[in-house]
Design goal:
The chain has 215 residues and is mostly beta strands. Helices cover 13% and strands 46% of the residues. It has helices spanning 3-9, 25-35, 109-112, 117-122; strands at residues 38-48, 60-70, 74-81, 85-90, 93-98, 103-108, 134-142, 145-152, 159-167, 170-178, 183-193, 211-214. A 12-stranded mixed sheet has the order 7-8-9-10-11-1-2-3-4-5-6-12.
């Protein structure tokens, strides 16, 4: 699984202070972007592939792990199950470590993110700062969540849309759809808002003996 796929299928973050009960999803998302400078949480990700001819049901893959970020440009996904993988953005480079293969892929961070869920959640300081990359609209409340849909303006076929589900003081769901019809839903729990993360927490050193591929 390459960096682009993981980022498109994957990303992340938290909220901080409570919003007014009447606030719609756009107001809730803007408050989150303004007031949460860093966060960490556990996540579960379910990736559903489009159903193929002859299949009784779409194929699904489930993974889980830990996510943390520090705005404006640092984040880490640690996948623990079923396979160990780590994605780290250190502000300059984006690292992908596949533990089973003992392989590290690294590329310039600015070339890898673009209009991805990771950029949406971990980069913007407010909603207006993201409007050059995404078109936003509030969706009706559903399942006790406030929803926002974000559609990338750069339609390169990788990411079609992201639906962000917010509940009270936390980001609850990221529902991501890519250009091939694959859907990835990340649900979050155990959020810690503004836990005192520092830039040094996002350094990554390739393990001894790892095969390092630079793109």
């Amino acid at each position: 699984m390459n960096i682009r796929t993981l980022l498109t299928a994957a990303t992340v973050s938290l909220l901080s202070l409570a919003w007014p009960a009447h606030a719609d999803g756009l107001q809730a998302l803007d408050t989150f972007l303004r007031e949460v400078g860093s966060a960490r949480a556990d996540f579960t990700q379910v990736v559903t592939s489009p159903k193929k001819s002859g299949e009784a049901a779409p194929r699904q893959r489930t993974s889980s792990g830990r996510f943390e970020f520090l705005r404006p440009d640092r984040f880490r996904f640690v996948y623990a199950k079923p396979f160990e993988q780590t994605i780290v953005a250190d502000g300059q480079r984006l690292w992908l470590h596949d533990v089973d293969l003992n392989q590290v892929t690294v590329r310039a961070q600015k070339d890898a993110l673009g209009s991805t869920p990771a950029a949406l959640i971990a980069s913007g300081g407010d909603l207006s700062s993201l409007r050059s990359a995404f078109d936003f609209k509030a969706l009706p409340d559903k399942d006790g969540l406030q929803w926002v849909e974000a559609v990338p303006k750069a339609r390169d076929g990788q990411l079609q849309r992201v639906r962000v589900g917010l509940r009270a003081k936390q980001l609850a769901v990221l529902d991501i759809e890519d250009g091939l019809g694959q859907r990835s839903e990340l649900t979050f729990k155990g959020w810690q808002a503004n836990p005192g993360l520092a830039t040094g927490d996002f350094r990554f050193e390739p393990p001894a003996g790892a095969d390092v591929i630079r793109q």
